Every structure is written in C-alpha cells, then in structure tokens.
Amino acid sequence: MIAVDTNIIVQLLTQDDEPQYRASVDLFQTSEIFIPDPVILEAERLLRFAYGFKAHEICTALRKIFGLPNVYLANENLTA
Predict the structure, then answer these.
(1) How many CB atoms sit inside 10 A of residue 61's CB?
(2) How many CB atoms sit inside 10 A of residue 19's CB?
(3) Which strands make up the sheet holding 71-73, listed edge to edge?
(4) What predicted TM-score, i.e. pTM, was given to this entire model?
(5) Which residues of 28-59 are buried (b: 16+ CB within 10 A; e: fewer)?
(6) Which of 3, 41, 48, 80 has the most crowded Cβ, counting Cβ within 10 A?
(7) How far apart are CA 79 and CA 68, in angstroms?
(8) Phi, psi of 53 (to 5 degrees)
(9) DSSP calls for 52-65
(10) What pLDDT, on a 0 to 100 scale, did the predictor assign at position 80?
(11) Do residues 39 and 16 touch, judged by C-beta distance below 8 A?
(12) Mean pLDDT by 10-residue block, N- to C-terminus, for the chain (80 residues)?
C-alpha cells in the first residue's frame, strides 16, 4: 500500500501539469492507496485557496476519490 502526499491528490484533481497528472492517474489505477488525514486537509486548503475550487466542488471531487475501491482512509466514515 502506498501513502500519497498532497501533490498527488491535487495533480489528480487539477490536471495542471500533464506528466504529473498522468503519473497520479497511473498510481491510482495500479496501487492500493492510503490517504492520510493531513493530506486531505492540505489538499482541501490548496484546492480552495490556490485553485479557486468552491466547497461543493472540493467535496464532490474528494468523495469520488474516497469511493474508489483501492483507496483507504484512516476515517472510514469519510467514504459514506
């Protein structure tokens, strides 16, 4: 299992750097992924303040990631 950092989550959702985006997609398609709580918080902050995502956009995007069958979180209630 691989624990990902904030950059991987942000690249997956923003697609602002093509090679990094492709690498993050490949990682999510081929590995068991653990997303630590601090990464979730940092990703939310970056998406909101650096990329201008709205709260509902962040929630929708993160829920899609959290719902993937190969993604694991410390707090399983976040996937519901």
Answers:
(1) 18
(2) 8
(3) 2-3, 33-35, 71-73
(4) 0.88
(5) beeeebebeeebbebbbebbeeeeebeeeebe
(6) 48
(7) 9
(8) -65, 145
(9) ---HHHHHHHHHHH
(10) 55
(11) no
(12) 96 95 96 96 97 96 95 78
CB within 8 A of 75, min separation 6: which ones? 37
- The first and second tokens of residue 34, run together, are 């653990």
What's the rounded Cα separation, in Å, for the pair 44 and 36?
A: 13
**What is the spatial distance between Cα 4 and Cα 22, in angstroms, rounded to a whole number?**
15
In the numeric block, which tokens belong to residue 61?
Answer: 């995007």
Cα–Cα distances in angstroms (integers) from residue 59 to residues 23, 37, 45, 54, 78, in the given order: 23, 15, 12, 9, 10
Q: What is the pLDDT of residue 54?
A: 97
State both tokens at 62: 């993160």
What is the rounded CA–CA span in Å between residue 1 and residue 12? Answer: 18
User: What's the number of domains the chain is made of?
Assistant: 1
Domain range for 59 is 2-79
